[in-house]
Amino acid sequence: MILVTGGGGFIGSHLVHQLVRDNQPVRVLEHPSAQVDHLPLQKIELVRADIRDTAAVRQAVRGCDSVYHLAADPNLWRRNRKEYDAINHVGAVQVMRESLDAGATRIVYVSTESILTSANSKGGAVESVRFCEQDMIGPYCLSKFRAERAAFELAQQGAPVIVCSPTLPIGPGDRKQTPPTRLAVAFCRGKVPAYLDCHFNLIDVRDAADGLVRAMHRGRPGIRYLIGGHNTRLVHWLKLLATMTNRPMPRRRVPYALALTAGWFSELWADTVSHRIPMATVTGVRLTKRTMSFDPSASLKELGLQTRSVEESTRDAVNWYRQEGWI
Questions:
Q1: Alpha carbon distance 200, 291 (integer Å)
Q2: Are the C-beta atoms of 202 and 196 separated by less than 8 Å?
Q3: List of residues 6+ apart from 267 with CB closer than 8 A
Q4: What residues are paired with 201 via a beta bridge?
Q5: Closest Cα to residue 85, out of 153, 139, 138, 163?
Q6: Cα-Cα-Cα-Cα dihedral of 285, 290, 295, 300, to 10°?
Q7: Which CATH class is domain 2-170+204-229+293-308?
Q8: How far apart are CA 162 and CA 92, in angstroms?
Q9: Residue 23 CA: distances (Å) to CA of 20, 36, 39
Q10: Which residues of 270-294 are buried (b: 16+ CB within 10 A; e: fewer)?
Q11: For a tag site, which of 25, 39, 114, 301 has the least CB within 10 Å?
């Protein structure tokens, strides 16, 4: 039996569909409030539980040889910032430890590229570079870093834990709208009057899921597998979206200081009034100042993974937005 935590999420749902297509027995652990009707429910075993619930996690991992841990809050703002650590860090450690205690022989922990932004300044390959808490920006990144550190510590102790770090996923099926999708949809609806240019690495969500499957079978504990696609600039990606939707490009490029100020005020409004995720977050703005371009070739070669072009991923994403009635 294979367990996928967070199987209803963006990458998780594509992973579940791929495993089902491969005729694998799949159990999905999802939060009680999560949407799951897009999953092949007749072909999987669904467990509704919070990963902070020790008893529920212990029951969910029972009988599972392989565990993919994706469950996390991927957003860069929460009204209660302390929940980041409880979910993304403590919850992740609990899933990994309970899985090992239950006899799991392979665990893939899914980290994030946002904690790798200082890799180039440290020197060495991203796959082997290690960081410290002082490198992290904001509570989200810190919580994911602490979970990744725990995964590496388990691997050093001999546990079969493999760490994977997908870069920014794009493509169809992002029902909860992670930050890249939220920005893309807003642009396609004409609600991005200005932009803060930055560099980042985009990967098709379907390739990210495929990379996780390959890491489960081929990955080595103690290595960080960078599941990345193509480096680009935000302005170039917006131009691609503009071509596909006949939307005009924003005429203004926002200075960093102004964007940071907007992020502070947006979060203040979200904290005290709207209680909804703001378009601009302080963490998101601060990350634009860090190195977000990567060379994933070593990881891709070892895993035997080939990735789609940004053009194909963006086109499929835009078509899916239309199908959903978002644009």
A1: 8
A2: no
A3: 77, 278, 281, 282
A4: 231
A5: 139
A6: -50
A7: alpha beta
A8: 13
A9: 5, 20, 15
A10: beeeeeebbbbbbbbbbbbebebbb
A11: 301
In this structure, which amino acid lies at residue 182? Answer: R
Pick from 171, 175, 227, 235: nearest CA to 201: 227
pLDDT, position 117: 65
Supply the pLDDT for residue 131.
Answer: 83
**Residues belonging to the chain:** 327
42-52 pLDDT tens trace: 999 999 999 99
228 with 296: CB under 8 angstroms? yes
Q: Which two tokens stand for residue 301?
A: 């070669």
Q: Residues in the chain with pLDDT < 70?
A: 117-125
Cα–Cα distance for residue pair 237/254, rounded to 1 Å: 16
CA distances (Å), 174 to each of 140, 170, 182, 287, in order? 19, 8, 9, 22
* 1 contacts 99 by C-beta, under 8 angstroms: no
**Tokens 């967070």, located at residue:** 6
Distance CA 202, CA 228 (A): 7
Q: Nearest 5°: CA angle at 124, between 121 and 127?
A: 110
Sheet with 230-233: list strands edge to edge: 168-170, 199-204, 230-233
**β pairing state of 230-233 and 199-204:** antiparallel
Tell me the one-letter amino acid at 271: D
Q: Tell me how far apart the alpha carbons of residues 167 and 156 are, in angstroms, rounded to a whole number.
A: 24
The position carrying tokens 């909804």 is 276
